[in-house]
Write a structure and sequence with these properties.
By secondary structure, the protein is α+β, with helices and mostly antiparallel strands. 31% of the residues lie in helices and 19% in strands.
């Protein structure tokens, strides 16, 4: 399934290793190691994100804004494919994107202690302070808007 997608991002499928990652709630995700570099490959869930090109454009606009206005902030931008695009579409498979893998990073699906909740809130607050949500991004999923996320953080429950 991934051979043509890896090629679209300039990776040689013969020397690339692909490992399925089961953590995460929305997209299908794989860790790819290719020629000494590590990446995250995702298939965008079109049941949640109806317009993946707009999702990709939002991320690019946010990345460009933060690069200009907050160059010291770590914002992981997509790797462009061989066509120069942030996403790749293949009939029957869907939309895919690739990000650099950040060493030491991890995903927490369910907050299990106050320290995790505090860190999530701290990072979200830092992001919203640096990037003021404006009309130059598309609304890509009504259920996942920043306003909804802000409201939902007020109802955060520890499991």
């Amino acid at each position: 399934m991934t051979e043509s997608i890896l090629k679209a991002y300039g990776m040689d499928p013969q020397v690339s290793q692909v490992e399925s990652l089961t953590s995460g709630l929305i997209n299908n995700t794989w860790k790819v190691t290719s020629e000494g570099k590590q990446y995250i490959l995702q298939r965008i869930n079109q049941q949640v994100f109806k317009k993946p090109p707009e999702v990709a454009e939002n991320i690019r606009r946010i990345a460009d804004y933060l690069k200009e206005h907050s160059p010291g902030y770590l914002f992981v931008s997509p790797v462009r494919n061989t066509a120069g695009d942030d996403i790749y579409f293949e009939d029957g498979k869907g939309y895919f994107r690739v990000f650099p893998f950040i060493q030491g990073s991890h995903t927490i699906d369910v907050v299990s202690n106050p320290k995790q909740a505090f860190e999530a809130a701290l990072q979200f607050g830092k992001f919203t302070r640096l990037y003021r949500v404006s009309t130059h991004t598309y609304s890509t999923s009504p259920s996942l808007t920043f306003t909804t996320l802000r409201c939902d953080t007020n109802n955060l429950r520890l499991h």
